[in-house]
Specification:
Layout lengths: L9 H13 L3 H9 L5 E2 H7 L4 H13 L3 E6 L2 E6 L9 H12 L5 H25 L13 H14 L7 E5 L7 H7 L2 E6 L2 H14 L4 E5 L10 E7 L8 H10 L1 E12 L6 H6 L8 H10 L3 E9 L5 E8 L9
Parallel strand pairs: 4-5, 4-7, 5-6, 7-8
Antiparallel strand pairs: 1-3, 2-3, 8-10, 9-10
Helix pairs in contact: 1-4, 3-4, 10-12
Length: 331
């Protein structure tokens, strides 16, 4: 008896063909490799791979059509990052396998050198940017990285995770509460934890304006709040204010239910020392490997990551770490 095979619709074939076409060029594979822990603009990528801007734009268009890269506009600049594979969708498993293979490769030495040059140019741009706005920076601390610049990336990771209808979320250090409406729409109950009465009052005003009835505000120190548990813990631009971030991640892991997710958004390592005084930063961002190592030591499993390049020369990392489902006790 002949068993009928699943039919492949023309549109499905086009999607898979676009993915295979995008992966069929060594330069495009190297672009994906370069975007593993970074995001770049067209001109930066053209410089890194020593080709013209129009040629690089063509390659990026092919990658975008195959949904292997995603874009984010900041002013007149467009930054490219790797798109997350969705393994439950058509081509998703192929997408994930492609990135796994790409990440096992090393970029050519000259390409690595030019990436270093781009990072140096970003650092110079950052210094120039803040030299021009220094006199008003104290009143505009989010000039480094405001919520609007990383909100979509955090939501991209958050919406890929599967939470039950009864799932709960905890945001540590919610600031003025700008991210709480997003959490309130996605979780049954949300707790906002802050040790600053003034900031918590701002968050309270926002919750009242937005009628967020499922958000509870609590004045407390996250490092000593061992009784609170949630399915998702969110730290947006908070970790660099902790004196001991590795220990803080361990404490955050203890706030998660087994199988829960920790989302950390923070700056990548930078050398702008003025941020300590102007913003109260204790850490000048973090190395990506350090965050992964600290999270692993805390009993968490590193998941997907996104990287957001900013026009002012800084870069944001958005990281997902998960507590294993079978972990019934916090180490």
């Amino acid at each position: 008896m002949n068993i009928p095979m699943p039919s492949l619709r023309p549109d499905d074939g086009d999607e898979l063909a676009a993915l295979c076409k995008a992966a069929g060029d060594p330069l495009r594979l190297n672009v994906l490799r370069a975007l593993a822990n970074d995001s770049f603009g067209v001109l930066e990528l053209a410089q890194i791979f020593a080709i013209g801007q129009s040629g690089m734009s063509h390659h990026l268009k092919v990658l975008a059509q195959a949904e292997l890269v995603a874009t984010r506009r900041e002013g007149n600049a467009i930054f490219y990052r790797r798109a997350l594979p969705h393994t439950e969708l058509l081509g998703g498993k192929l997408h994930a396998a492609l990135l796994e293979e790409v990440d096992s490769l090393s970029l050519p030495v000259d390409v690595q050198s030019r990436i270093g040059q781009v990072h140096g140019q970003r650092a110079a741009a950052s210094q120039d940017f803040f030299a021009r706005v220094a006199e008003k920076f104290r009143a505009q601390q989010d000039l480094i990285a405001g919520l609007a610049q990383y909100r979509d990336s955090v939501l991209a990771l958050l919406d890929k995770l599967s939470f039950s209808d009864e799932a709960t979320a905890l945001e540590v250090g919610p600031g003025d509460g700008g991210f709480l409406p997003e959490l309130a729409r996605r979780f049954h109950q949300v707790t906002a934890l802050d040790n600053s009465p003034a900031m918590l009052d701002l968050a309270r005003q926002l919750c009242e304006r937005e009628s967020l009835g499922n958000v509870r505000l609590q004045l407390a120190d996250a490092l000593s709040s061992t009784t609170i548990k949630a399915d998702c813990v969110v730290l947006n631009m908070v970790l660099h204010h902790f004196a001991a971030p590795a220990e803080a991640l361990k404490q955050m892991a203890g706030l998660l239910h087994p199988g829960g997710s920790l989302l950390v958004t923070d700056l990548c390592s930078h050398n702008q020392n003025w941020a300590r005084e102007a913003c109260g930063d204790l850490w000048l961002g973090f190395e990506q490997d350090d965050l992964a190592r600290w999270a692993t030591a805390a009993g968490l499993v590193p998941g997907d990551s996104l990287y957001v390049g900013l026009r002012n020369g800084f870069q944001i990392q958005v990281r997902h770490f998960q507590r294993p489902a079978g972990d019934t006790h916090h180490r």
